[in-house]
Design brief:
The complex is a heterodimer of chains A (352) and B (253). Chain A has a single domain, classed as ABC transporter involved in vitamin B12 uptake, BtuC, CATH 1.10.3470.10. Helix content of chain A is 73%, strand content 0%. The chains are: A mainly alpha (352), B alpha/beta (253). The structure holds adenosine-5'-triphosphate and magnesium ion. Chain B: It holds the Pfam family ABC_tran.
């Protein structure tokens, strides 16, 4: 062993200062662009007025649009994008399956069922909000999936963890199908045409109803999610060669897997309950970021969170401005933009 | 590190994979495990690595119960090269070897000079320094195997478990790997299929149907009767030019 050691490699977070800048710019853009395009100056002045009472003269209606509608909407979009992308990162790393995302784990399906039960079937007689219904549904579905996965992989325990991951994915597929069927059943049974249309719209993701009340919870779960993933970045790295590989690198696999997946479930539950089931972000963004920054989680986690946030804010802007006078469900945009982008990244990556 | 297996049994779905295995491996010893396919070599390795809980009996490493050792603690002492482990992640050779330092890092303790030194030394030991920047999926099977071994060496273990490490290696790298393993000053357990390579071990254990049917010096254990009974082959022993015993296999019985 030679003692003239190589220089310690530079810290990998060199570009980190860019993240808040990019995120801030995106949110400003998301606030300025819309059906009525507002000048950046107005946006900045309105923000200054609200944040530190700067007292710039601005048009009251424009200020209202910016502060009460567009800004919370952009913030929630950013939080959801970051959160959903992180969920994909975590699930894909822990389950060693490139297709793992919140959809696959039954989380989105459960949230939909919960929301539909409350709004269409009138469960709780108005005492329960749609958000709470969706959150409960998501966690319930995830609980079912987890129990089923455990039953499938049985009492094997003791390191046969790779099979447990496969079992979880199969159980997730079964759970998703079941809860999607339940949702369809409830809509068919008791929704009138108007309700059905509304609910279909919500199922594809809808940011229209977002107000300041919703920002806190979304912000809390996504910031906590980023922090948790960064804290466990090495644990996530350790899964590179599978669960047994992680265990032999000193990771307590059941504990880490259990706690991170449960945290994921809560995060998705909260986010989906606010904005509906937005697909594609959790699947595509982590893959895209792996191509750009590599598979190491010290870079992948912040990059995915940032890219997810930017992607969803942009998708929201597009959903509001693509068809004049009409708002598209954001899930439609994420899929329309995400699918070709994903294909491009794949082709590009294969060439390298 | 001293390893002691006491009446170890392991089963999956009630099928017994290992039965009543007792053996003591001394500090610094190179212990070879041989046996036909499905005889339980990998299962025993997994038990030694702490990846599989024995159903009864136990393993003591330096007189401490392996089952009670915290995972992180264990990973600083015991490194394991699995029979097969692959990834679809895009990572470089160096990043794969870096993984071996995970037991020494924490969320707050970052990458340091000692980690760097360990990774460099491990890459050098398996002659993969020139490949450090290559992406994993561009490596050949043998190169991957050498990276796995480098990763295990980077863990700076006191017990190194190698499950058929010479698989996929060309003859030169087989020999240089065996020379590398023989030169390491730590306790090593190595599962092998090439019985002539096994003669390089200090002692060997022969597994058959989940039982340890023989242990001892390679030249005592690997005799014609055992080879016929356990492996089902007719073999003769003769001396190599350097005087060491060589096995010649003539046909399956
Ligand atoms: N998860 C499992 N479920 C059921 N049987 C298993 C399982 N894992 C291993 N076995 C069985 O246990 C026996 C021992 O397997 P093990 O992998 O330890 O063999 P081995 O000696 O390493 O063989 P090889 O030389 O082929 O690597 C085999 O018969 C195998 O089929
Ligand atoms: Mg084996």
């Amino acid at each position: 062993m030679t003692m003239e050691a190589a220089p310690v490699r530079a810290v990998t977070w060199r570009g980190l200062w860019l993240a808040p800048v990019v995120l801030g710019m995106t949110i400003l853009a998301g606030t300025a662009i819309g059906e009525t395009r507002l000048p950046f100056v107005t946006v900045l002045r309105t923000l200054a007025n609200h944040l530190w009472g700067a007292g710039y003269p601005v048009d009251g209606i424009e200020a209202g649009i910016i502060w009460s509608y567009r800004l919370p909407r952009a913030l929630v979009a950013a939080c959801c994008g970051a959160g959903l992308a992180l969920t994909g990162v975590v699930l894909q790393a822990l389950l060693r399956n490139p297709l793992a995302d919140p959809y696959l784990m039954g989380l989105s399906a459960g949230a939909s069922t919960g929301a539909v039960l409350v709004t269409v079937a009138g469960l709780g007689g108005g005492a329960i909000s749609m958000s709470l219904g969706a959150l409960t549904g998501a966690l319930l579905a995830f609980g079912c999936v987890a129990v089923l996965a455990r039953a499938v992989s049985g009492d094997v325990g003791g390191g046969r963890a790779t099979q447990a991951a496969a079992a979880l994915i199969l159980a997730g597929i079964a759970g998703s199908q079941l809860f999607n069927a339940l949702t369809a059943f409830i809509i068919a049974r008791s929704a009138n045409a108007e309700q059905a249309r509304g609910i279909m719209f919500w199922l594809m993701g809808n940011l229209s109803g977002i107000r300041w009340d919703d920002v806190g919870a979304c912000m809390a779960v996504s910031v906590a999610g980023v922090a948790l993933c960064l804290w466990h970045r090495r644990g996530l790295d350790a899964f590179t060669f599978g669960a047994d590989g992680a265990a032999s690198l000193g990771i307590n696999v059941p504990a880490l897997r259990g706690s991170l997946i449960a945290a994921t479930a809560v995060m998705v539950g909260v986010l989906v309950s606010k904005v509906g089931a937005i697909g594609f972000v959790g699947l595509v963004v982590p893959h895209a970021m792996r191509f750009l920054v590599g598979a190491r989680h010290d870079r992948l986690v912040p990059a995915s969170a940032l890219a997810g946030a930017v992607f969803l804010v942009a998708a929201d802007v597009i959903s509001r401005s693509l068809v004049p006078g009409q708002v598209l469900p954001i899930g439609v945009v994420t899929a329309l933009v995400g699918a070709p982008a994903f294909a491009l990244i794949l082709v590009h990556g294969a060439r390298k | 590190m001293k390893v002691e297996l006491r009446h170890l049994s392991a089963r999956i779905h009630r099928a017994p994979l290992l039965e009543d295995i007792s053996v003591r491996i001394d500090r610094g010893e190179l212990f070879g495990l041989v046996g036909p396919n499905g005889s339980g070599k990998s299962t025993l390795m997994r038990c030694l690595a702490g990846l599989q809980r024995p159903t009864s009996g136990g393993i003591l490493v330096d007189d401490a119960d392996l089952a009670r050792m915290p995972a992180r603690h264990r990973a600083r002492r015991i490194a394991f090269v699995q029979q097969q482990a692959d990834t679809t992640d895009r990572l470089t050779v160096r990043q794969a070897v870096d993984l071996g330092r995970i037991p020494y890092l924490s969320a707050l303790r970052g990458w340091g000079r000692s980690d760097e030194t360990a990774v460099e030394a491990a890459l050098t030991a398996v002659e993969m320094t020139a490949f450090a920047g290559r992406l994993w999926h561009t490596l050949s099977g043998g190169e991957r195997q050498r990276v796995h071994i480098a990763r295990a060496l980077a863990q700076d273990p006191r017990l190194l478990l190698l499950d058929e490490p010479t698989n996929h290696l060309d003859i030169r790298h087989q020999l240089s790997l065996m020379a590398l393993v023989r030169a390491l000053p730590i306790t090593r357990v190595i599962a092998l299929h090439d019985l002539n390579q096994a003669t390089a071990c200090d002692r060997i254990g022969v597994l058959s149907g989940g039982r340890l049917v023989a242990t001892g010096l390679p030249r005592d254990v690997l005799n014609e009767d055992l080879l016929a009974e356990v492996f089902g082959v007719a073999a003769t022993r003769h001396a190599a030019p350097d005087g060491s015993p060589r096995l010649h296999f003539s046909h399956a019985l």
